[in-house]
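Why does residue order matter? Because the sequence determines the fold. Keep that principle in mind as you read this record.
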Amino acid sequence: MTAQRDRERLQRIAAVVSAADASDPARAICDACVAALPVAGASIVLTAGGIPTALASSDAVAARIEELQATLGEGPCADACESGRPVGEPDLAAPRRARWVAFAPAALAAGAAAVFALPVRIGAVRLGALTFYRSRAGDLSDEQHVDARLMADVVAHVVLAIQAQAAPGTLGPALEPLVGHRAVVHQASGMVSVQLGVGVGEALVRLRAHAFAAGRELGDVAADVVARRLRLG
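Structure:
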């Protein structure tokens, strides 16, 4: 029975790898994850310089969940990236322990009832996280958790494959927007730091707070600060 389950698991993961052979492999993996697991959506986030940036999402709710985490600086993706361990909450409305004070109600309002995130890593190097959401409360089974971990490994290898196609000293085309987003947020944090006379870390918190209060994406607010269309102090 165990051998049969292992074969079935390998077949499912092989299907994910095949689905990734597309013009947008990261999005293809998100879609394949939704097809293979009892989840409503999936998203992939990569982190660089402490700034999480969405690489792909299966649907609008998954994209909104990542926007919320980037803006609020909390959530399963942030925890998985920091700890290097899987993080999940099978019932955001009645969590097992209090956490994500701002993210949980916002994610519920966006359409997520349960969320799970797994670190995307190569050895000890943490690249980001693979996040799932369910529209109804409920946990994943032990076998489904194993499948999810394997899918996170697939994501790591796809990121490496994308980068392997780039010329030496450059990034793969699919990864270029991530660097631009990080640079804008870092530059805006530096400008707000000077404007308010606070540290860069506190400036990033202020940027996130403004974006959340205004119902805007962090990157858009940062771009306005850099272009001097917005001043926080």
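The mean pLDDT is 82.
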